[in-house]
Amino acid sequence: MSQLFYDAAPNATRVSPEREADRHYPEKPEAVTLFGTCVVDLFFPEAGLDAIRLLEREGVRVHFPQEQSCCGQPAWTSGYRDEAKAVARAQLDILDQSGLPVVVPSGSCAGMFRHHYPALFADEPDTLKRVETLAERTFELTEFLLKVCRVQLADRGAPSKIALHTSCSARREMNTHLHARELLQQLGAVERVDHDHESECCGFGGTFAVRHPEISSAMVSEKVDALVDTGTRQFVTTDCGCLMNIAGYAEKNQKPVEGQHILSFLWSRTQGKGGSSHE
């Protein structure tokens, strides 16, 4: 086990396997493929649109294959290997067509491509080579903006205080919390406040919330209470599953905190508007 999980504040007690070494980042490409994720597509399409706007503002063309669907993570984490393989193989065929870098507005889905597809296809040498190539050209979107586009954000919003929730799998597999923190730090009028239990799971876990609703509810209750205790009324996150779970619980139980995908937050702050732009 390694250092605390990973640089969580203020509760420095969480541990995890060693973080992978810093990856090599390429020069900014002319175009990318956006893997939108099924949760963005079904529940938070504005996050996908704002992802496109942020990328296009950096001069990057966005290719969006209409045939894409789920990355296969729910089936994989539920133990349905064959079903996960079928879904993953379909995505691989689609993403191989262009050979472009793949950007994903979700740390957990990006982690599925980078870390779990190789395990899923370990017994198929030819497919494994394709999967390993996909893994190297897959980036979580805040990582891509920060490390590949080297974006410099100009904050045009009013003074604001927010909390950052980082998906436990995104933190563990993609260091997404570090990328999100750096981007938020560029926003001069935004104060990011730490909340207790930051590194702990919100209780969603895909099918976990369905299989173990009582445990899941207790976990998200603690997460929401920790957010409320900071005094902020807004949190942002890179993962829409967590966003749906935390914001949904808060709304149902009339807790004074609202959530937003970080990409929509970044777009609105740098456009000088209170919410996402949808022109």
Distinctive features:
single chain, 279 residues, alpha/beta, Rossmann fold, 2 domains, four-stranded parallel beta sheet, 13 helices, 48% helix, globular, disordered N terminus, disordered C terminus
Summarize the structure.
This protein has helices at residues 38-43, 45-57, 73-77, 81-96, 107-120, 125-136, 141-148, 168-174, 176-185, 208-211, 213-229, 240-252, 262-271, and strands spanning 31-34, 61-63, 102-104, 138-140, 160-165, 190-193, 234-237, 258-261. The chain is α/β, with parallel strands linked by helices. The protein has a 4-stranded parallel sheet. It has a 4-stranded parallel sheet with strand order 6-5-7-8, with helices on both faces.
Notes on the protein architecture:
With 279 residues, the protein is an alpha/beta fold. The protein contains 13 helices and eight strands. A four-stranded parallel beta sheet has the order 2-1-3-4. Strands 6-5-7-8 form a four-stranded parallel beta sheet, sandwiched between helices. Helix 12 links the parallel strand 7 and strand 8 (258-261). Helix 5 runs antiparallel to helix 6 (125-136), helix 5 (107-120) packs across helix 8 (168-174) and helix 7 (141-148) crosses helix 9 (176-185).
